[in-house]
């Protein structure tokens, strides 16, 4: 038996139609260690190779079907959908190692949806995790289920198994493999995110796996705040009425305290991941919204917050008290959850009032997604304004910021932030990730280079905006630590996403440089040990290896194309006169008469007094030798409007044409 310690199991969920997963997301992926296979069962020896049934199933090597070779594993006599072929991996899996499990499945007859799941047990307590969700399987062909699984706790039983969604039909299994890739050391010679972004804490949502080994090193190096992603939700902390369980969250909180990390609590109240019993009467029937039902539900809510809140006390400085209560399609803007249909707004009022009593010094937040959509933003604003007018202690508005490489715009996000400033609440970015996908129909075997570049620019632009509004924003949290463990691998469809700053081997991506030093987006060389000052929003002329070396490798044409009292329009053309391409560019100049850029297209701009820095857009950063890129802008002026006399591009002085 392994040592007894209980944490949550972290899983990254993937369902794909190939036997292997290509996940190279950074320039040095080719140098990553080769995967090591620890299980390879093809049933060609005529045995079941260690597989057993979870109940009364009959397992046998069979020649009736085969994915490869001449045999597969036949599974008959299934008595329940959750019963199927299982393999004990207690003595194979090591805690903190991410394993890729791959199985090929087909039905003997008909069709169903198959899942790949894990059962772990400690003493008499069993837990079940889905590694690959429901995937259509028929008798007409083989289907591959592939997913990653990381064990983050000590257990005395661990197995993975195949189950189905709706029938107990017989099935075949073949070519089962389990492998892992040896951990790659994290990069210690790159700037810490938390040391560059100093205006507010920068955090990551974590599971038990993120406090172990290299993941824990990456977490403590770069971040100064954590959010337990699932461990503090109702189903984890109070699975049965009055029975509280903190075994998932306690190790995460202890790790944060030991490493000096701030903690965001997520979440007291949500319409998801709330056990069914919460909305049932004592006799098991569903509540309908009577006065008695309302009183019972609010009593349960109060009891839950008092117990969970008191258990952690001042250790958790910020709480998402209520989560995702807005539905902008409703006339009143409120989500028709069971909470709302039974209690109206009183569940929100009660949650905040009780949380304030139990946690008098904590920041209390209302949290929602898509708040950069005007209708949702306005509905949330109206709710917060109304409740604060009643004296409800809402300290904070949380913007989740689950976005993608093409949405939303900076302007939409800035309008979101500006909207809540008059309410006098702090604002937090609570669950940020940037998907490489722009529709549910896309599925890339490996993240395309152009999407990763677009992602880097999106991170660059969003973090620049957040830092611009540092007086309004008190923290930014990413919904995950690295691409090896992200909820977007299964939502809205199963496919490998890459939404975070670090790739599946925990190496820095261009997205990381978008936050830390945008001049290095797209570069592949080792980073300097400290970031250039341009990463703080103050334009400088620090060199960048993405540019051709040597002076006069660029030529600039600056033209005023229109002028009126107090304003003007400008056009700038950058020509690469060097012998190597630019992979990204940053153009710097000084205005001489206090001119100010008010709008810019085909790039993005930061301005500190007279110092201007313009960064390329996602589509015009690569400039070949002899090639050019252009951008335009609107500006304001008073008195005079002289043209700048000198320019530098990526630290190199340019010729003025």
Structure, explained:
The protein has 657 residues and is of the alpha/beta class. Among the domains are: 10-180, Galactose-binding domain-like (Jelly Rolls, Sandwich), CATH 2.60.120; 554-656, Immunoglobulin-like. The protein contains 11 helices and 31 strands. The strands form 5 sheets. The chain has an 8-stranded parallel barrel, surrounded by 4 helices. Helix 8 (374-389) links the parallel strand 17 (363-368) and strand 18 (396-399). Helix 5 (291-312) packs parallel to helix 7 and helix 8 runs parallel beside helix 9. Mean pLDDT is 89; it is low at 1-30 and 524-551. Belongs to the glycosyl hydrolase 10 (cellulase F) family. Its EC number is 3.2.1.8. Pfam families: CBM_2, CBM_4_9, Glyco_hydro_10. It catalyses: Endohydrolysis of (1->4)-beta-D-xylosidic linkages in xylans.
Characteristic terms for this protein:
30% strand, Galactose-bd-like_sf, 8-stranded parallel beta barrel, alpha/beta, 657 residues, hydrolase, Jelly Rolls, disordered N terminus, Immunoglobulin-like, CBD2, Beta-xylanase
